[in-house]
Amino acid sequence: MSARAAQHKALPLGLVLLGGLVALASSLGAGAGTGLRSPLAGPLLALAVALLLWGAWGLRREQEAAPRLADEPAPEAPRTAEAPEALLPARAPEALEALDALQEAPLLLVTCDGRGRVVLAEGEALRVPPRRLVGQPAAGLMELLPWLAASAPRALRGERFTEVVEEEAEGGPRVLELRFRPRRDSGGRPAGFLVVGTDVTARQRREQELAEDKARQRLLLEQLPAVLWTTDERLRLTSVQGTALASLGLDAQGLMERRVGEGLLDGAALRPLRAQHRRALNGEHVSSEVNVQGRTFRVVLEPLPGAGGRGPGVLGLAHDVTDFKRSERELRSSRADLSALLENTQDALWSVDREGRVVVANSFFRELARDAFDVELRPGSAFPEMLRAQHPEAAQRWEALYARARAGEHVTDEQEYVVDGRRRAYLVSLYPIRDGGEIVGVSGFSKDVTLRRRAEEALRQSEERFSRIFHAAPLPILLATLHDGRVLDVNDSFVEASGYSRAELLGHTTRELSLWMEPQEREELISVLRREGRLVQREMHLRRKSGEQRVVLASFVQVRLLGEDCVVALAEDITEHQQLEERVRQVAKMEAVGQLAGGVAHDFNNLLTVILSHCERLQRLGGGNRTVEGSARQIQRAAARAAGLTRQLLAFGRKQMLRPVVLDASSALWELGPALRALLGEGIRLDYRLDLEAGSIRVDPMQLEQVLVNLAANARDAMPHGGQLALVTSHAEAGAREGLPEGDYVVLEVQDSGEGMSEEARSHLFEPFFTTKGLGEGSGLGLPAVYGIVRQSGGHVRVDSAPGQGTTFRLYFPRLAAPAPRAAAAPEAVLVIEREPELRALVQRVLEGEGFTVLPAHDAADAEARLRAHRGRVALAVADLDEAERERLSAQLAALRPGLRLMSLHARAPQGPPPAHDGVATASAAPAGVATSLDALPREVRRALGDELTGGAPAPNGRTKPLLH
Q1: Which among 106, 146, 415, 875 is least surrounded, fewest beta carbons within 10 Å?
Q2: H or E stretch including 411?
Q3: Confidence of residue 51 (pLDDT cuts 50, 70, 90)
Q4: Strand pairing partners for 750?
């Protein structure tokens, strides 16, 4: 009899009793659905479950106590009356299954009878109290558990099956394993079912993770660039896999059942490999390298677990390390090259770890540390801690640099050391060393930049010198790009020449600024520069910011700067030079014409002398013949007129004999007032703008009068409808800009408001016989005579005129250092009455220069106040009055100072201009007792006072000549 049969024999009474109790409890509880359930059903069922648990526990202990041999087949349970299932009542197997389910702590335990009523319901999956379900139809349960509706028919038919469902719980989705077991009656027919639900969520998750791990391991083994194998005790391959098989041209299936290394290795390599496998069989862990088909594999052997500590086989792994070995060799070679580079470079290189200990330091850094800091560096030395003792400041500086580098910053510093007794500059750079993003140290290098610093300083000084020369150069210089003329730089002279500021020029093109007057000039320039590279001494027109056009002599050179074609332009402004050249040509022409005119005039004057002599002879010999005498007079008048023209030609040709004296320029112009007023007439106003400090000039008074009269006559003709003529004196320092020799000049200006003249007319203004007047209205010799007289007197003539803007003649005479001399002083006081302030100041200056005490007054009331305030003697009053004003003022002054005499400053000229011939007017004679010129004024004053001084004889034309000194 088998052991299991013996066990079944040992418990017949207990199981029979258990079956009876279960059946009894079931029958008593069958009436639960009708409300007739016995109160003994619960205790009986509990007793039956307890006996069942006791019997099952004893049965399992007996089964575990009788171990089965590995090769002994399990005995088939006899289907006899001796089997436990046969001895149990019909419901005993269901009770055992229920007992097993209860031991698993299920979430659901439900039993239904054959009529579909719930007999037993337990577990939290119900979500309602179990007492509400027991005895109720299963339909209510199916509403709570929808999955039960599909499975209940199968269970009621007596099927035994297991299902897995997922439902929502408070903690989230969970998985239930449902085991359906049928219940049978005594006849073996289906009489209900038992369903047990267990939470297998965690188990299923572990099974899924385990499956995924197995899949990953399988994929890893399949993709691993290695070979994985196992052997038995006889070293025959029991499994082989790995992608390295394909690289060796091997097939895993073809290697099975072969011994290790068979067909792959020769005897010399095979014996050591098998010896290593035998060591692994004995429990050792073996590692080695094997060469197969020219490739290197690292082999690791592990014993497979077996009984008695001896492995039943070997687990082997061979990894292809050919590329790794090659990389290792290359790395060693690279390190050797790097080491050689570090030792042979001219820079100091080193690295330290995060604690500042030296890891690498080449010979130059070690020498630098030794020479500069007296420190011997070795691997592991703590730098810069080694500096603290002797060089605390340097240590502090180095520690600050290292701290910044360890913080991730790229640090650059320039330091100076004394090496070999010489001070040298080093550029120090520190970089953080990172490993996986973490800073693990600092590397650095120090480069000797002493020579570079010297070169940079020399370059800086050179650039500074060039910049100073560039900006201080007297010639304008421009640097621009060649293709578009964009201004890159200009010097100060170009800024001044162009009129633009530096900011207005830089960055703009010459086309935008319109620097060159003619656009085609630039196009031609670019063409020549691209072809020849330079263009020298090209006359061009430069346009200033104001629009003024200047003529420049420009030179251009093409240069290459910063990879771009550029052009350097030097421009010399020759505008004034050209004007001076034109003036020189004009002067030369005038000189030539003057010499010609002077020679002709001299010969013509000789002819006129003969003609006039014969006219006088004809008049004497006429014998009273009126016809002859009349003709002779006509010839004489014509000859006299021709003689006047001859004198003008001689003046233009500078052939006249001059008698220059020192004159005050302002006084000289004022003295000519009466003559000029008479010449101009009533329609033209004469104004004075005289600078009393203008200075003295040396000139012939008669010739100066001729010049001013000629200019006034031309101004009168230019103002046929009236206007204004101004006489202006000033002092000026002139030079090359005005086309004059450098020096001080007294400037006499004659300004009219007439019609003006064109540039063409102005260019021929001083040519003999040139005139803008109609036929027979002018000889064209008036202005040439002005030019000749002024030039012969050492002066210069300049003309400004434009159509409709009037004309200004400027006469430049050299200014004398000493003023014009005056006569001896006189003690008398003189009252000067003049409304015009300039004239009053001029008269006061002339008289005070002669020693008179002058009381200036601007009208009669002011004169009366001056007389009352003056304590001394006033012998004479000088005023510019007509006859009626003179009588009225004489009466007023006589009442204050009896015996005071009154003298007119100027005589009133007759109305209308005097006759003028060819632009040369003659002044009218002044009546006695009138001062006709400022130079003659002191003499006339003395004559009026009875203190007569010799001053000069009357002129042939009846005028009193100015007193000459």
Answers
A1: 146
A2: strand 411-419
A3: very low
A4: 727, 809
| DSSP secondary structure code for residue 290 in this structure | E
User: 748 near 670, Cβ under 8 Å?
Assistant: no
Give 35's DSSP letter.
T
For residues 54 and 34, what is the distance between their CA atoms, to the nearest angstrom? 33
| DSSP string over 440-494 | EEEEEEEEE-HHHHHHHHHHHHHHHHHHHHHHH-SS-EEEEETTT-BEEEE-HHH
CB-facing half-sphere around the CA of 220: CA atoms within 13 A? 6
Q: Quick one: average pLDDT of 60-65? A: 42
What distance in Å separates the CA atoms of residue 866 and residue 861, rounded to the nearest whole number? 9
Q: How many Cα atoms occupy the beta-carbon half-sphere of 424 within 13 Å?
A: 18
pTM: 0.35
* Structural contact between residues 315 and 302, judged by C-beta atoms closer than 8 angstroms: yes
**Span 287-314, pLDDT tens digits:** 988 888 888 889 999 998 765 555 588 9
Q: Mapping DSSP to helix (H, G, I), strand (E, B) and coil, where does residue 79 land? A: coil
pLDDT for position 807 = 93
Using DSSP, state whether 824 is helix, strand or coil. Answer: coil
Residue with tokens 């009357």: 954
Q: What share of the chain is helix, strand, coil (3-state, %, to 5)?
A: 45, 25, 30
Amino acid type, 406? R
DSSP tally for the chain: helices H, then strands E: 30, 33
* 417 exposure class (CB count in 10 Å sphere: 0-12, 13-18, 19+): middle
pLDDT of residue 466: 86
**Is the pLDDT at 704 greater than 70, yes or no?**
yes
pLDDT digits (tens, 9 = 90+) for 625-684: 777 777 887 887 787 767 766 666 665 555 555 678 888 888 888 878 777 888 888 889
Burial class for 716, CB neighbours closer than 10 Å (0-12, 13-18, 19+): buried
Residue holding tokens 């009068």?
Answer: 705
Joined together, the tokens standing for residue 879 give 């005023």
Label residue 653 exposed, middle or buried (CB < 10 Å: 0-12, 13-18, 19+).
Answer: buried
Q: Which two three-digit tokens encode residue 27?
A: 């029958």
Closest CA to 543 of 566, 575, 567: 575
At 85 the three-state DSSP class reads helix
pLDDT tens digits along 578-614: 877 777 777 676 666 666 666 676 677 777 777 877 7
Residue 106 near residue 121 (C-beta atoms within 8 A): no
Phi and psi, residue 258, nearest 5°: -80, 160
Asked if 840 contacts 855 with a C-beta cutoff of 8 angstroms, the reply is no
Handedness of CA 214, 216, 221, 226 (dihedral sign): negative
For the cut 80, the answer to whether the pLDDT of residue 799 exceeds it is yes
Residue 136 · residue 35 · CB < 8 Å: no
